[in-house]
Structure prediction request, 323 residues.
Amino acid sequence: MKHLPNAVFFAATLALPASALAQTAWDMPTPYAEGNFHEQNIATFVADVNEKAGEAVAITLHPNQSLIKHPDIKNSVRDGIVPIGEVLVSRLENENAIYGADAVPFLATSYEDAKRLYDAQKPMMEKALAKEGLKLLFSVPWPPQGLYTKDEVNSVADLSGKTFRAYNKSTEEIAKGAGMVPTQIEVSDIPTAFSTGRVEAMMTSPSTGVDSKAWDFLSNYYTLNAWLPRNMVIVNQAAFDALPAEAQTAITEAAAAADTRGWEASKQETETATQTLKDNGINVVEPSEELNSGFKEIGKTMTEAWKASAGAEGEELLKAYGQ
Prediction:
């Protein structure tokens, strides 16, 4: 296991007092390419920490799954293989339904709603993360999710039988609800998956469409505004606690700034990326009433299913969100 030496070193550093370390080196894996707005925001966060933490800690960013694959990042932070990392929140829904709230279709379809949902979801996420020795630093939404297809689509029935790119439990359920066949595909594999015919449709943000150059293999983007899933940056609590107080403050202050900056960047990204899709020949269109209503029906069914899986916490979260 190639990460074992790092894990051993990391565990050893935790046993030492902060004063015994001239500088703690942190590797930070992220899932997306450097040009992505999430990664640009994180790069600024890293620069802020490295500047303000002095000699206490230095973070090295490893984007685009170059150090650790996306499905393994959260557990790698938990297990001390790396002290900090970024992950798509809803990837963890199979571990705890609370992580899936922001990926329930048509529950929150605007930035204002997404922020209220996050405010209700955040303390429950922090509680779940703390049980695994993890600390939430900040969480930023993607632009609203839309439907990408090669062929024109006017109703959910038009999608029946098509293969569909899935990346979490919710997208798998959307595919099944629309009669499609879900296939797990990471962002970095999207172009190949479409070019080789492994998938024929996907639901994702305009940002991911631009990052994957969707115009090379797709023709249409339907602005469903189905939900605004979020990424989060987490840190190993023991690694954080091992730092001197001034370094901890540098991290939390940089994280707060990244949270605010990231939400604003996401709004701007929605406009910029959507225009880029148009400029490169993608037909950006409003969904037909039939297509929109069909997906909203799937969303209602999924909301009820999510409430049942989340139990009392889910009821509490939705009550807080509705206030």
